[in-house]
TrEMBL record:
Tagged with keyword Isomerase: yes
PANTHER family given in the database record: PSEUDOURIDINE SYNTHASE, PSEUDOURIDINE SYNTHASE FAMILY PROTEIN-RELATED
Name of the protein this chain belongs to: Pseudouridine synthase
Any one GO molecular-function label of the UniProt entry: rRNA pseudouridine synthase activity
Organism of provenance: Liquorilactobacillus uvarum DSM 19971
Family named by the database record: Belongs to the pseudouridine synthase RsuA family.
UniProt keywords, alphabetically: Isomerase, RNA-binding
């Protein structure tokens, strides 16, 4: 791998930024100063230092994004803004993608990574990873509706959902504020579930996915790296 690509891949900066760092004589490979970004290195064998600090190569990156409304959960889109465009250029590394999809008007927790194995583990129906949402529903979610959702809803296309857990948080002005936990990922699932009950989802916000909870300090549109402990727990799901 080229040295400039190596440094860009680990998030040291954009390709142009790391070239300046290299040309400035700040980079050593196996203790020797290297000022040419085209130099080929072996990321697992060669020791790279920047400003006399050893740089550990990182294969995978993990971010928690508090997704706002108005952006799509995709890697690229010719018309609409994507979640990857919310990342700083330095963090928007090649190969990153959102784990699953949140609708354009849905907010909340979205994992962004380049770790395909973890993404498959979190999204595979075989693993039954739980996802928790808070929602505002037009209509009264009464005990009967809670029981129907718990036993599985027959959608309008004839497909039945698995049972989901609903907790009613507040009833006001003919609206219901709820918390709902599902273990599937059907297209527009929660909206379709309540649609089958003749109710409308007004707001939908994901707050948990597996062991990961949305950081309450993250404003919409903001993100941060996952901690080592958060990554470890996700892999244990």
């Amino acid at each position: 791998m080229r040295l400039d690509r190596y440094l860009a891949n680990i998030g040291l900066g954009t390709r142009s930024e790391v070239r300046k760092i290299i040309k400035g004589g700040r980079v050593r490979v196996n203790s020797s100063i290297v000022d040419n970004g085209k130099k080929q290195i072996k990321e697992q064998d060669d020791q790279v230092q920047v400003d006399n600090k050893i740089i550990e190569y990182q294969d995978f990156f993990y971010y928690m994004l508090n997704k706002p409304q108005g952006v799509v959960s995709a890697t690229n889109d010719k018309i609409q803004k994507t979640v990857l465009e919310l990342l700083n250029e330095r963090d928007c590394l090649r190969g990153l993608f959102p784990v699953g999809r949140l609708d354009k008007d849905t907010t909340g927790l979205l994992i962004i990574t380049n770790d395909g194995k973890l993404a498959h583990q979190l999204l595979s129906p075989a693993h039954h990873v739980k996802k928790v949402y808070q929602a505002k529903i037009a209509g009264i979610v009464d005990e009967n509706a809670v029981k129907k959702i718990a036993s599985g809803i027959m959608l309008r296309n004839g497909e039945r959902t698995k049972g989901a857990e609903v907790q009613v948080l507040k009833l006001e002005d003919n609206c219901s504020w709820i918390k709902i936990t599902i273990s599937e990922g059907k297209y527009h699932q929660i909206k379709r579930m309540f649609g089958a009950l003749s109710m409308l989802v007004i707001e939908l916000n994901r707050i948990e996915m597996g062991s990961l909870k949305l950081d309450a300090s993250l404003e919409e549109g903001s993100y941060r790296k996952l901690t080592d402990n958060e990554i470890l727990k996700l892999k244990e799901n």
